[in-house]
Amino acid sequence: MRIGVVCYPTAGGSGVVATELAMALADRGHALHVLSYAPPLRLPAFDDRIRYHEVEVTSYPLFRYPPYDAALASRIAETAEEEGLDVVHVHYAIPHALAAVLAREVVAPRRLPVVTTLHGTDITIVGQDRAYARMTRHAIRASDAVTSVSGWLRAETDRVFGPTREIDVVPNFVDPVRFAPQPDRARRRAFARPDDALLVHVSNFRPVKRAVSAVEVLAKVHAERPAVLLMVGEGPDRAACEARARELGVRDRVRFVGAQTEVETLLPLADLFLLPSEFESFGLAVLESMACGTPAVAFEAGGLPEVVRDGVDGRLLPPCDDAAMARAVLDLLGAPARLRELSEAARAGAVERFGRDRVVPLYEAVYRRAVGGAGAASPPAAGA
Questions:
Q1: What is the pTM of this model?
Q2: Does 25 score more than 90 pLDDT?
């Protein structure tokens, strides 16, 4: 197929999943066209199978805020006509799904099926905002097919917007060849001494990720045994993390390395992955860490129980209990045999349940259904 993929280019989960999917689909023989306002973080610079189409937004004095959604719709329509797209797959509902639905109308009578994947905050935060709720509901109903990354998110979508249409659960996935337990001991020594425990946190440092709590946990752990925390990513709470580390006297024990395109080289170095998020619709960073043999200690929030099996391949704790997280980390670090068991189970579970070759065909099946279907779901009855 000729597939258009629309995503944000940042390090957030939706952009990463979209880019990884584009690469996986290209490996399976499809022609991929990625549309965004900047090249996505993980998009290969040179790959003849994947064409990048920049969405340019024109500034004009009349516009207080440049109309990105209109520019995106125009770019989707243009790409669909010039490249003969069979389907466009948008990641994140607002404004991507709305722009794709508009582009579908622009290119009519040529058919352009729209597949929308819901990732989390597009439903739980942005979509519930009064300014966007009605349009988010319309975008979901007007799509030809809709997927969510977890069963929890599907249920949350139905709870927030009412049963809008059938939603397929297609989980996030991981490439088990690239994300593998291959620690570079020399590189680990660049971050931690041999007697240090090495913890890692990967996120976009937004408030919902509670990245500052990862620093709190590190301080509690380091008070009882030497430990270092590797912080991977960028975002609004990074400065707060640095300030809290100084206040707790552990600034020299926290390594900030920024956003990384090859996070698979860092995850295998760590003993444990910390995820103190308030909620996660899935937890892609956790899955990638598990594939690297680094089990996660996280909170039982959102869709994480669908990824991490408490006591089997990681630990899940009561939400927002940093003290409990620190104690769980210390217990595992003090039981090397138990930690090895979790590490092996994490790797095996990631490959068996969420391996790329298992999940990507599920997306292909959704595309085939959307392309062969009669179109978008019927609009709701008046008053629905």
A1: 0.90
A2: yes
